[in-house]
Amino acid sequence: MSRCFFSPRNRFLVKAPSFIDTRPSKNTLSPTRFFGFRQPAILCSVVIGLMLGNRVTAQPTSPAAPHRAPTVVALENALTSAIARAEKSVVAITRTLPNQPFAMLEEPPGDAPLRHLERLSEPSNRLPLPDGLGVVVDRTGLILTLSLLVTETDHHTVTTTTGKRFIATVKASDPRSGLAILEVNPTDLSPIEFGNADDLRKGELVIAIGNPHTIVRDGQPSASWGIISNLAQRIGSEINLGTPDNPTKTNQSLHQLGTLIQTDAKLAFSTGGGALVNLRGELIGLTTSAATIAGHERPAGYAIPMNTTFRRVIDTLKEGREVEYGLIGVGLGSSTGTTTVPLDPKLHATGKATLGPTGVPIQNVMPGSPAALAGLRIGDRITHIDDHPVENAQQLQLLVGTLRPATITQVRYRRGETPRRVSIELAKYPLESRAIVTEHSPAWRGIRVDYSTTAELVRNDPGAIVSTPDPAGCVVIREVLPDSPSWKAGIRPGMYISHVGDQRVTSPKAFRNAVDAAEGTVGIHLTQPIPGKPEPKRKPQTDPLLPGSRVEL
């Protein structure tokens, strides 16, 4: 069967590649037959294209033709203008091992369908085989991409649409959001404009720009267009959008809680890290390969939204710092569904009862966590976070996880039939997958501390000490610099600090404020005795100390 390819912008039939049979047949669509159709048929084809996600390529805007509907011309001009505005910001990313040259573009063995696609370019010189995409977000050389595409040890190369190639370094990565920032030397890169994904609605037109292979080959990223199908899509537990080094740690991704944009714009293999833009060419999402990771393409594409939550993540990564997420410190059970119950049973008989969500039951409370300090108990049911109703554990995790540690959060819950409310200062979520950070918090006399809720991660350090936290609140020592005063005093990672002087510290900020306010030698109380050091003398006080060691630094 013969085939032809129609380009609506330029109104001519594109010559088919050599491997496609172009012999005449009764099914072949000629230009004369195509333009013999009436305008309703053309509009119908536009609607079908919207549903299927037509493949388009950026071209200069063309003047309206006599036999083309104005709506078609307007839509076409909007698409081509948006693509032209955004595509110059999309780059290809290649990752190679330090002791290996670039992987080269090879023809697949056998008669695989991709073999014909590779023959189309027939490059005279072999080109690097890219792993994915990125989007320029700052003129200083910062490129937004997926954390799945970067590692600390590999080499990374960025190729632009102009054919320039740069060695890139990893500024920071965050496996929970799936985002990372690469950095290249300042050049004439064109940063993309950001849109606001908080304002998106289902049915809006969007354009996906990507294909790293065509960027490397000829500087022409591919584009497809479609509509937004879903604004709160979840990925399955088998899909990893976090880090290539630890693909098993997938249960900590925010995207399993319902964050992703779903679109019917076609997103094929290797399109992760590309741009999802609106009709103004503004970045509203970073494309992922979630639809293809499972081993086959699905009729949907997914993108990480550029909303308030992920813009905060990006701003933090651009500074090279660690992205932190809030934690209450409870283990959750499954809710009983969306059935509502009276919030005040006494009003039920009067007909004035207010109905509310059943909430999520607490199955356990982490010792020393914000929940424990606030008095939450096993069996309580959390119904609201900052007046947002909670119907299931995933919804609660997303509401809390998008907030920063130290945020004061209003938690409404039920104990039996009694509704209650409490203010909780969030702690830090312990992220098991390794983040890449280039700008660390300053050390104080050789130590860096963190929230006690992250202690399990600190214990992975070969030199860490397994210690006992203070249930009344403390911080964990995350790092001790060698040969520092703290190291020489016997302090090691994994130990807990409950007091600086006589002041209890329950967060890194409280610890920093306490040591900054102290002058000269500062006494810190550890919950872990240091071998060879006598235990401090106990004094009656309103805030009792656990057995441990007092160290003067």
Structure description:
The chain folds into 4 domains: 1-36, no CATH class; 51-59 and 77-106 and 114-320, Thrombin, subunit H (Beta Barrel); 326-428, PDZ domain (Pdz3 Domain), CATH 2.30.42; 440-552, Roll (Pdz3 Domain). The protein has 553 residues and is α+β, with helices and mostly antiparallel strands. The model is unreliable at 1-60, 102-125, 293-297 and 336-355 (pLDDT under 50). Strands 10-11-12-15-14-13 form a 6-stranded antiparallel β-barrel. A 6-stranded antiparallel beta barrel has the order 4-5-6-9-8-7. Strands 17, 20, 21, 22, 23 and 24 form a 6-stranded antiparallel beta sheet that branches. A hairpin with a 5-residue loop joins strand 13 and strand 14. The radius of gyration is 29 Å and the shape is globular.
Number of domains: 4
Radius of gyration: 29 Å
Output the strand order for the largest sheet.
Answer: 10-11-12-15-14-13
Using the alpha-carbon principal axes, give the shape: globular
pLDDT averaged residue by residue? 78
